[in-house]
Design brief:
This protein is mainly beta and 249 residues long. The chain contains 1 helix and 14 strands. The radius of gyration is 22 Å and the shape is globular. The chain starts with 7 loop residues before the first strand and ends in a 7-residue tail after the last strand.
């Protein structure tokens, strides 16, 4: 039995990842344990760890399962306790990006947790944020890459990045019956020039206006137009915004 006075109360998370072929035949399974620790990270969140699975270039599917347990840690000795929660997710139809050199291509939007406007200049200083729910006090950074931009007669690239941010907030029950949910949309666009066929871009999403609002959904759409070739590509991502809770007195 552990000495409760000196034991470090914490919890452990077990991640199990199962990889399937395009016809859903099981290829391989991997598992890993994570010690969440007793201390939270920035803004009350546990800083996530990156879990990578190497696979071939063809499509494949993933089945993911997370299990969280209580644990007593005393030095190198760990005693597993009760299971607190379990979550599963299926990631289907993961396909490689188009490799055709004459086809404009764009990566998915990668959400990162930034420390504020000063940290925008360096993506390396931000932490991955693989969650669909985020607090209004957080500083959310979206990073993406562009491939196969066209050259003009001067061997220069020119492309326009447009951001479309739509916020949907629930109204009161009676108002929602007649008018639906409240929607707010913000758009902005910027044209860039360069001398490389690839580009790295990022956008900082300010959620501070949500701190005193009802919970709602945020959809960010990023649309890129190659001004040289006329090709266009876009990606979008959704988040559930949770307002800051009032301080208890």
């Amino acid at each position: 039995q552990l000495d409760e006075e000196h034991a470090d109360k914490t919890s452990l998370v077990k991640l199990t990842a199962v990889e399937y072929s395009p016809d859903y035949s099981r290829r391989k399974m991997r598992g890993k344990w994570y010690n969440t620790g007793s201390a939270s990270g920035q803004q009350g969140l546990v800083v996530p760890s990156v879990f990578s699975i190497k696979s071939g270039s063809g499509p494949y599917h993933l089945g993911l399962q997370w299990e969280q347990y209580t644990a007593d840690v005393d030095g190198s000795r760990i005693q597993l306790g009760d299971q607190l929660r379990i979550a599963t997710r299926r990631v289907d139809t993961l396909a490689a990006l188009n490799a055709a050199p004459d086809r404009l291509e764009m990566s998915d939007l990668k959400p990162l947790l930034s420390g504020g406007s000063e940290a925008v200049a360096s993506v390396d200083d931000a932490s991955p944020y693989p969650f669909s729910r985020i607090g209004a006090e957080a500083s959310l950074l979206l990073y993406f890459e562009l491939y196969h931009l066209g050259f003009d007669s001067d061997d220069r690239t020119r492309y326009t990045v447009e951001y479309d941010v739509m916020r949907r907030t629930e109204r009161g029950r009676l108002t929602r019956l007649f008018r639906g949910d409240k929607e707010e949309r913000t758009t902005a666009s910027t044209t860039y020039e360069g001398d490389r066929r690839t580009a790295k871009e990022q956008i900082l999403i300010d959620l501070s206006d949500w701190e005193n609002q009802n919970p709602g959904m945020l959809t960010v759409t990023v649309r890129v137009t190659d001004e040289v070739t006329g090709q266009q590509v876009e990606r979008d991502i959704d988040f559930e915004i949770t307002p800051r809770q009032p301080d208890s007195q």
